[in-house]
Design goal:
Largest sheet: none
Oligomer: single chain
Order of helices and strands: HHHHH
Number of strands: 0
Helix content: 40-55%
């Protein structure tokens, strides 16, 4: 059976089927540094963790810090739009 036909039967995108994630060689080290930094300083957001890592000499983007933080569930990714709301799905009037 061809790849195209098999993906159509399984309802899978062919590009998603062929996708292989690219991992950087130092990705695990950076993730552990993000988690260590966030655990040592208590309640901090991803922006503060990013700035602390940049001050220590690590070249890192804020989006990567936020993604690693969400995956590890160690630090909170703050959104000022929802600040102070009990239920963020409710809209402010």
């Amino acid at each position: 059976m061809t790849e195209r036909r098999a993906c159509r039967v399984l309802d899978v995108n062919r590009i998603a089927y062929r996708y292989e994630p690219v991992r950087l060689p130092d990705e695990d080290d950076i993730r552990t540094e993000i988690i260590d930094t966030s655990c040592n300083f208590g309640r901090v957001g991803y922006r503060m963790v990013t700035n602390m890592m940049r001050n220590s000499g690590t070249i890192i983007k804020g989006k990567y810090t936020a993604k690693a933080a969400l995956d590890a569930e160690r630090i909170t990714v703050y959104n000022s739009h929802y600040a102070g709301m009990d239920n963020p799905t409710e809209f402010r009037s």
